[in-house]
Amino acid sequence: MPHINIKLLAGRSEQQKQELADSISEALASTLGADDSSISVAIEDVPSGDWTEKVYKPEILGKLTSIYKRPGYKPF
Which terminal Cβ of the chain has fewer Cβ within 10 Å, N or C? Predict the structure, then answer.
């Protein structure tokens, strides 16, 4: 607890993804008082052509009641 699953458009470097995971982990530890050893972060690359069907519709539009930061874009 907690586990974070981040979906990104494909194209970020491994270094960028590692830095993001580290930053998210630090924010979770600081904000929630979670021990670093209890935090896990997964990052999934999603091709841009799959974003609407695989992410936007099921993960965002389909779960609006649990979205605390909504995107300001329309799906592709």
Answer: N
Does residue 2 have an active-site annotation? Answer: yes
Which pTM was predicted? Answer: 0.87
**Active-site choice (2, 47, 58, 75):** 2
11: pLDDT strictly greater than 80: yes
73's CB contacts (< 8 A; 6+ apart) are none
